[in-house]
Amino acid sequence: MAETPAGSAADLEAELRQLLAARNREDMAPTIAALLDVRDRYPDNARVRYEVGGAYDTAGEEATAAGYYEQALALGLEGDVLRRCYLQYGSTLRLLGRSEESLAVFARARQSFPGSVSLGVFEALTLHAAGKANAALAGLLVLLAENVSSEDLERYLPALHGNAAYLASLDGGAGHPA
Q1: Is the pTM of this model over 0.90?
Q2: What is the torsional sign of CA 87, 89, 90, 95?
Q3: pLDDT confidence tier of residue 3, bands split at 50, 70 and 90
Q4: Contacts of range 56-62, beta carbons closer than 8 Å, 24 or more positions apart
Q5: How much is the average pLDDT of 151-155?
Q6: What is the CATH superfamily name and number for domain 7-77?
Q7: Alpha helices, DSSP H, located in the chain
């Protein structure tokens, strides 16, 4: 996280935690205003750009959010914040009707975070929005098989994987089913 004369990384992290804890998801204007002030003090900070994007996203201003997510990615995020940014950016692109761009974001995200269940779920939503319902269901079947521990389901794992592969093939192998 880039530091500026405005304060240390720890100060910034504490301020962001406080702002996000106080947000009212029904009225994001005060949170957006506060985050824009933080952005002005930390203009080259990827995490701040990501949080501003998330606030606009929560407020239903997806087009503005997308721009901030793009800036955050360009400035360099890492770790779990990068995973969350990919997820939120991909989901925002889907909501904006930009499904192919969303799928490209999820493909990049899944390379960096192959075990992320949340990325897989939101990728499935984008596949569905892109008219690839079979691939969406295939991806969810694989997530279920690989992440839900159930004695009842255990004996059917090969069948789940087989069905997922078949469904994915119906949509031209789209998505990340296997």
Answers
A1: no
A2: positive
A3: very low
A4: 56/28, 56/32, 57/88, 57/92, 58/23, 58/25, 58/28, 59/28, 59/29, 59/32, 62/92, 62/95, 62/96
A5: 91
A6: Tetratricopeptide repeat domain (1.25.40.10)
A7: 9-22, 29-41, 46-58, 62-75, 79-95, 99-112, 117-129, 133-147, 151-154, 157-170
